[in-house]
Amino acid sequence: AQAPTVFAFPQNRPGEPCTATGSGFSGIDSCDVGSMCWEVDGTTLQGHCVSFCMGSEDAPSCKEPGSTCHGGNLLALCLPQCYPLNPAPCPEGQGCYPSDDPMTCAPDISGPELGEAFDACEVANACNPGLFCGNAKTVGACAPGDVGCCTPWCDVKSPECPAPTTCQPYFPEGLTPPGYESTGYCGQEAK
């Protein structure tokens, strides 16, 4: 009798490089159980492993230090938490963008022609690192008809913003998460 063939797949841990099979959305990859290959390059099928969130929908959690649960009911992932005034923890090509809890590193999807201050955008990470896609009404410097435009982060304690904007607190008074007290955005004063 011939012994059954046992397939041994390399199992990469969160944070390690990985390879997807077929496409970046196939769900088949070299990551360990409880994680998936994320930010997969469409040509090389290379990415890095990230963990799925644990806990309940009301109280999601991540076991990796410095990461936070991001996403919805179908796909909740543990992504690196960041602080926009200190973007160093984000990998190259990524920026610190608003998310559910409250900021995470994500790839800049603006492309080579867009993503500068006051360029039109529709999603948070459609701007160069150091900027995010702000609502046209709160930024106040977007072109007429734009839903949103890229605006820089700023430090409310030492504000610097391109005209015609000024540094505004990002979080409403009394709702600022710990570590984000100086976080502001370049926009117009609320009226």
Topology, element by element:
Blueprint: E1 17-19, E2 35-38, E3 46-51, E4 54-55, E5 60-61, E6 67-71, E7 76-80, E8 94-98, E9 103-107, E10 120-121, E11 131-135, H1 136-139, E12 148-155, E13 166-169, E14 183-187
Antiparallel strand pairs: 1-3, 2-3, 4-5, 6-7, 8-9, 10-12, 11-12, 12-14, 13-14
Describe this protein's structure.
With 191 residues, the chain is an all-beta fold. It contains 1 helix and 14 strands; from the N terminus they run E-E-E-E-E-E-E-E-E-E-E-H-E-E-E. Strands 10, 11, 12, 13 and 14 form a 5-stranded antiparallel sheet that branches. Strands 1-3-2 form a 3-stranded antiparallel sheet, with no helix packed on it. Strand 4 and strand 5 form a beta hairpin. The mean pLDDT is 86.
End-to-end distance: 81 Å
Radius of gyration equals 20 Å
- The total count of strands amounts to 14
Number of DSSP helical runs: 1
Structural class: mainly beta
Show unreliable segments.
Answer: none
Q: Tell me the helix content.
A: under 10%
Brief digest:
With 191 residues, the chain is an all-beta fold. It is built from one helix and 14 strands.
Note the main attributes of this structure:
single chain, 191 residues, mainly beta, five-stranded antiparallel β-sheet, three-stranded antiparallel β-sheet, 1 helix, 2% helix, 32% strand, globular
